[in-house]
Amino acid sequence: MAILNKRKKVFASLLLILLVLGCTLFTTVYFMFLKPINIKLESTTFYINRDDNMDSVYIHLQESLQKPIPYGFKLLSTYKKYPKQIHTGKYTITNQDTSYSLFLKLFRGNQTPTKLVINNVRTLDQLAQKVGDQLMIESFEIQHYFDDIQFLDSLGYTKETLPALFIPNTYEVYWNIEVEDFFKRMGKEHLRFWNEERTKLAQEIGLSAIEVATLASIVEEETNANDEKPMVAGLYMNRLKRGMPLQADPTIKFALQDFAIKRITNKDLEVDSPYNTYIHTGLPPGPIRFASIQGLESVLNYSKHNYLYMCAKEDFSGKHNFATNLNDHMVNARKYWRALNQRKIYKLGDN
Length: 351
Fold this sequence. Notes:
Blueprint: H1 2-34, E1 43-48, H2 54-65, H3 71-79, E2 89-94, H4 99-107, E3 114-118, H5 124-134, H6 139-146, H7 149-155, E4 169-173, H8 179-193, H9 196-204, H10 209-222, H11 229-242, H12 249-256, H13 293-300, E5 309-312, E6 320-323, H14 326-342
Antiparallel strand pairs: 1-2, 3-4, 5-6
Helix pairs in contact: 3-4, 5-6, 10-11, 10-13, 11-13
């Protein structure tokens, strides 16, 4: 009986020791790996660039957490040899993340998509800069492809027509997207926009997708008023159908690469450029800016009218007076010229 009681005590002691060890182990594991990090913010964004190493990752991570790197994260990084397989990208850390979940997120490269905004872009250089400012891609990497004739040919574009590929919008992409994948994605978005319905509309008005984008770019440089864009598009369509020069001042600014011009002079109209629509009939070689969806739609659904001339309104509202004949147009033009003179705008950039 005494021996039995002694065995029970030994068993109970061992059970207690195991229970204590188990609780200690669980507590250790919980606080080291499973306890929420509890950062000060609800969430924070953390970036890993292509030139980051383990030291810089730790520095950036500590800045994002606003606290020392959890020991559990460092332990897992060492055990799983994370420094040898660091994944670039944009990561979101929440206050519910633990050392374990945070490590898995970075170790597996489970990025958070980012919103790429492409809008209000006039030139390819501006596009490269805007994309470079938002993604891991450097602007010079994108510009390199702009000059790669073989690559552009594979896309079906030239450097002059390339702006027609892009549909300005907000896109969800990964921050570390490669340059070629960026172009592929823009190609997919282009095809998504140019669905069967829009392609049919373009065919009905006798323009290709590139030509629609080219005309839309001129329309958008002429007016910011969305309700006026179909009217302006209709005017240029009338001129194209009659074989008249477009005589679009924005194309002169593009030819001169001076977008701040406030008053086009006769000398400006002599610029030797295929973009000079006072000299050359038809559309210029390509878009003079990245046409927005609104601009593209305004060409596809242009207003049917008989106007052939337009002139900026003398109230500087940004809208235009339209005319069907040259005499009426000259009356409108004189009103605008007088308004320019009153504001002492006589030539390039003068105020």
